[in-house]
């Protein structure tokens, strides 16, 4: 890992009425305890309705998020 | 799951607490109960005494369960040259923490539990108060968005992802 990669900050962004965007240096452990192999960024479901949890599948556009 | 590691800051220093390193020598609360009180939560009240007194007690801790760094980077530079100083230990701990990936644990029928060093921006792009561990809502019903407030239990959220 080079110096730049190490210092990349990890950022969570609440997307208005949408998912949670995460970028930087992170690992996701899913509800079954498995480590997911994700690189650089991910959009995580915040509306509760995604069929692809923990990821967003744009269901929020239909059901909305209480923001 | 939670390492229990915590940080407490006043205007001059940040105190780091790593419970796994504590050998219960009790020197901290015998000498300064106003700051280090294991009977209350949070157990460290950083505003309970002067910075000078707090540093004296941290230096008496036989392990690096308690360490501190100065908010002023210049002061850290001076202190980090001292062999085995508490500041040096704190800086080493912090640098290790900074290089570790942030851990996002997906809780079944519950929130995302996040630990590590990270920044949170709300939907207006405003940076929220920095914390080393948070839970993000996943059920869509929290009144404290983007954080979890326990609503998933009330609404009977089923994540169907386990």
Radius of gyration over C-alpha positions of chain A, nearest whole angstrom: 13 Å
Mean pLDDT of chain B: 91
Through-space gap between termini of chain A? 38 Å
Shape of chain A: flat
CATH topology of chain A: Ribosomal Protein L9, domain 1
Overall mean pLDDT score of chain A? 89
CATH topology of the largest domain in chain B: Alpha-Beta Plaits
- Per DSSP, the total helix count of chain B is 5
- The percent of residues in helical segments of chain B reads 25-40%
Number of β-strand runs of chain B: 7
Integer count of domains of chain A: 1
CATH architecture of chain A: 3-Layer(aba) Sandwich
CATH architecture of the largest domain in chain B: 2-Layer Sandwich
Backbone structural class of chain A = alpha+beta
* Tally of individual domains of chain B: 2
SSE succession of chain A: HEEEEEH
The biggest beta sheet of chain A is recorded as: 3 strands, antiparallel
- Major beta sheet summary of chain B: 3 strands, antiparallel
Along the chain, the helix and strand elements of chain B come as EEHHEHHEEEEH
DSSP strand tally of chain A = 5
What does this protein structure show overall?
The complex is a heterodimer of chains A (67) and B (162). Chain A is of the alpha+beta class and 67 residues long. Chain A has one domain: Ribosomal Protein L9, domain 1 (3-Layer(aba) Sandwich), CATH 3.40.5. Chain A has helices spanning 3-7, 60-63, and strands at 11-14, 20-23, 26-29, 35-36, 41-44. Chain A has a 3-stranded antiparallel β-sheet, with no helix packed on it. In chain A, strand 3 (26-29) and strand 4 form a beta hairpin. Chain A starts with a helix and ends with a helix. Residues 1-6 of chain A have low confidence and may be disordered. Chain B has 162 residues and is an alpha+beta fold. Chain B folds into 2 domains: 6-99, 2-Layer Sandwich (Alpha-Beta Plaits), CATH 3.30.70; 101-162, CDGSH iron-sulfur domain, mitoNEET-type (Ribosomal Protein L9, domain 1, 3-Layer(aba) Sandwich). Helices cover 26% and strands 19% of the residues of chain B. Chain B has a 3-stranded antiparallel β-sheet with strand order 1-2-3. In chain B, a hairpin with a 3-residue loop joins strand 1 and strand 2 (13-17). Chain B is elongated and about 50 Å long. Chain B starts with 5 loop residues before the first strand and ends in a 7-residue tail after the last helix. Chain A binds chain B through residues 1, 6-7, 9-17, 20, 22, 24-32, 44-49, 53-54, 60, 63-67, and chain B through 98-99, 101-108, 112, 114, 116-124, 136-143, 145-146, 157, 159-162. Strand 3 (26-29) of chain A pairs parallel with strand 4 of chain B.
């Amino acid at each position: 890992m080079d110096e730049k990669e190490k210092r990349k900050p990890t950022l969570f962004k609440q997307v208005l009425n949408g998912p949670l965007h995460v970028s930087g240096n992170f690992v996701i452990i899913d509800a079954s305890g498995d480590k997911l192999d994700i690189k650089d960024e991910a959009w995580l479901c915040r509306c509760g309705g995604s069929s692809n949890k923990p990821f967003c599948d744009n269901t929020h556009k239909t059901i909305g998020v209480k923001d | 799951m939670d390492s229990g590691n915590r940080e407490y800051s006043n205007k001059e220093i940040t105190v780091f607490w790593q419970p796994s390193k504590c050998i219960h020598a009790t020197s901290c609360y015998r000498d300064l109960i106003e700051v280090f009180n294991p009977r209350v939560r949070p157990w460290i009240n950083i505003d309970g005494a002067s910075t000078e007194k707090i540093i004296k007690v941290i230096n008496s801790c036989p392990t690096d369960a308690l360490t501190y760094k100065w908010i002023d980077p210049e002061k850290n530079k001076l202190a980090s040259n001292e062999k085995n100083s508490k500041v040096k230990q704190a800086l080493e701990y912090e640098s290790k923490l900074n290089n570790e990936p942030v851990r996002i644990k997906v809780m079944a029928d519950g929130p995302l539990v996040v630990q590590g060093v990270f920044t949170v921006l709300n939907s207006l792009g405003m940076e929220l108060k920095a914390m080393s561990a948070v839970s993000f809502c996943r059920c869509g019903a929290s009144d404290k968005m983007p954080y979890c407030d326990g609503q998933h239990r009330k609404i009977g959220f089923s994540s169907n992802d386990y």
